[in-house]
User: Which sequence fits this backbone?
């Protein structure tokens, strides 16, 4: 389907054919949802052993009765697992509740209201606060910034990570830029894996940024490889130590898409100074996390080998779903310019770009045919995709055959919206 060379008559013929196909989908009464990156029930079943795994023994390795108060920064054995996941020393780890998003919100609150180097370092005392946001990116990151009234500035995402030439130039020119969001492995939604060069340049940002600058390093998909030859991710903590910028990076991860999404364990990795400031505030809000759940997880994942074996089972369930999405896109758009996408090597998403100006229309058409997509614009700050192109596809929850059907609808919607646009020009 070459819209660039098609006559008006050919376009009208394609529109009629696509409209008929679209109407056929509408008559099927579909109710398919590919909006959010959640584990499927089959994936959650992989961790059902958590239920009853303690067998009535509530003592941790060091003799702590996990049913009681205390242990603000988590069980030592859980800290060790977090340290291995994030490639940092154990003394850099704080273990939280089930949500790394909660830890990120709390870390932002610490920086904004209380500061990491005393009250005078609080961002709220320093005028306008701005954040760099690689795009397309994660809507919940943007929601945190918007909640605190932080201005968001976009940076394009390249094949090896954020455009660091632009990021460095912006930070040098504007000391009110206090931070940057990063999803370094299988970035949401593009699936980009940051290169070693990009990671080192991000680690060096603290040396050129204004006071109190913090990179929020959300390593949500560090364990979520789809293939055995997955790319390795260098440790940003090692680069920070090399360049003397240890205080400039806050790292996060969790088991939310590893065990139970609603009952996992979250990790934060930070320098001693950052941890001390964070725990001072946390100690006012909490007398300790859910250590029973932490102990359950240490029994299920006693070491990294067991964790990686568990994640291989996740990959077996996810891979067919991603294969369907990528094959449908290749078959429909591999020989034309109606769409662009990136092959997913891991994570939970496929990022698709329509022709400029069509994302909202595609989402609207898909919804009419019973397929829910993430709202167009969600992958940009304030919900504003300036070119109205990007759509995030999340195929993890539906069954494989349902993903296939949802993608048939999606392909039809993209083609129909593209023909409509060509006819209107």
Assistant:
């Amino acid at each position: 389907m070459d819209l660039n060379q098609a006559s008006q008559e050919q376009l009208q013929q394609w529109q009629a054919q696509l409209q008929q196909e679209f109407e056929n989908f509408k008559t099927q009464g579909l109710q398919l949802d590919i909006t959010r990156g959640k584990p499927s029930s089959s994936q959650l079943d992989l961790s059902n052993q958590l239920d009853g795994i303690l067998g009535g023994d509530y003592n941790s390795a060091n003799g702590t009765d996990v049913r009681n108060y205390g242990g603000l920064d988590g069980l030592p054995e859980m800290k060790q697992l977090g340290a291995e996941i994030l490639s940092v020393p154990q003394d850099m780890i704080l273990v939280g509740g089930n949500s790394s998003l909660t830890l990120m919100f709390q870390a932002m609150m610490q920086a904004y209201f209380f500061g990491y180097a005393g009250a005078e370092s609080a961002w709220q005392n320093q005028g306008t606060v701005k954040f760099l946001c690689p795009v397309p990116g994660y809507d919940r990151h943007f929601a945190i910034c918007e909640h605190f009234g932080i201005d968001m500035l976009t940076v394009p995402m390249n094949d090896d990570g954020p455009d660091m030439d632009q990021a460095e130039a912006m930070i040098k020119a504007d000391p009110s830029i206090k931070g940057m969001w990063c999803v370094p492995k299988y970035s949401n939604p593009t699936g980009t894996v940051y290169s070693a060069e990009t990671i080192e340049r991000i680690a060096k940002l603290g040396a050129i940024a204004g006071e109190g600058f913090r990179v929020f390093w959300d390593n949500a998909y560090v364990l979520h490889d789809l293939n055995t030859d997955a790319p390795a991710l260098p440790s940003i903590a090692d680069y920070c130590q090399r360049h003397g910028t240890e205080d400039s990076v806050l790292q996060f991860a969790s088991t939310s898409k590893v065990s139970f999404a609603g009952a996992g364990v979250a990790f934060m990795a930070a320098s001693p100074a950052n941890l001390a400031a964070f725990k001072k505030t946390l100690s006012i809000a909490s007398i300790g996390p859910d250590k029973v759940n932490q102990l359950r997880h240490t029994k299920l994942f006693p070491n990294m080998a067991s964790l990686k074996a568990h994640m291989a089972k996740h990959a077996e369930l996810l891979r067919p779903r991603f294969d369907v999405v990528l094959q449908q896109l290749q078959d429909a758009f591999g020989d034309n310019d109606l769409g662009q996408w990136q092959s997913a090597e891991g994570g939970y998403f496929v990022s698709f770009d329509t022709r400029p100006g069509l994302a909202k229309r595609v989402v609207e058409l898909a919804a009419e045919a019973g397929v829910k997509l993430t709202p167009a614009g969600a992958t940009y700050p304030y919900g504003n995709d300036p070119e109205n192109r990007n759509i995030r596809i999340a195929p993890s929850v539906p069954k494989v055959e349902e993903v296939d059907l949802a993608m048939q609808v999606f392909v039809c919607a993209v083609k129909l919206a593209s023909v409509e646009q060509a006819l209107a020009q």
User: Anything to note?
Assistant: Residues 8-43+308-424 form a domain with the Aspartate Aminotransferase, domain 1 fold (CATH 3.90.1150.10). The chain has two domains: 8-43+308-424, 61-302. The radius of gyration is 23 Å.
